[in-house]
Amino acid sequence: MLDALTVAVAVTALALTAWCGFAAYRDQPTKDWHFIGMAVVSLLALAQLVVGIVQLSRGERPEQGMTIFIAYLIGAFFAVPAAGFLSLTERTRWGSVTVAAGAVVLAVLEVRLYDIWGN
């Protein structure tokens, strides 16, 4: 895996966590600009998914197993979009909390992906 991309995804996910957490603190639902932030984080996660699949197709293998690595890659890709979709159904501060929680999950998944790959 590309270490820089993993760090970029984790850092942007934590920035999204802080941003949506602050919105929740101010009793605000997710707004359009939060969805733009979610799109940026999701695009980075998509890039990571593509890089991971390309590396697997080139014959590189993670230390802790390919199946678990692919499962974590897919889970990392869907963490923020799923939280964003749920925030659309909850147009209160709890929608912002949901996105913040989904972004924290993504950051934790990034740490785990790094461990699985074996850097």
Give your account of this protein's structure.
- The chain has 4 helices and no strands.
- It has helices at 3-25, 32-57, 66-89, 93-117.
- The protein is elongated.
Largest sheet descriptor: none
Secondary-structure-derived class: mainly alpha
Helical residues, percent: over 70%
| E-strand count | 0
Shape: elongated
- Summed up, the helix count is 4
Give the low-confidence spans. none
Radius of gyration over C-alpha positions, nearest whole angstrom: 15 Å
Element pattern in H and E: HHHH
How much of the residues is beta strand, in percent?
A: under 5%
Q: Kindly, what is the distance between the CA atoms of the first and last residues, rounded to a whole number of angstroms?
A: 8 Å
**Average pLDDT rating:** 93
Could you list some keywords that capture this structure?
4 helices; 82% helix; mainly alpha; 119 residues
Give a summary of the structure in a few sentences:
By secondary structure, the protein is mainly alpha-helical. It has helices spanning 3-25, 32-57, 66-89, 93-117.
Give the helix/strand layout.
Layout: H1 3-25, H2 32-57, H3 66-89, H4 93-117
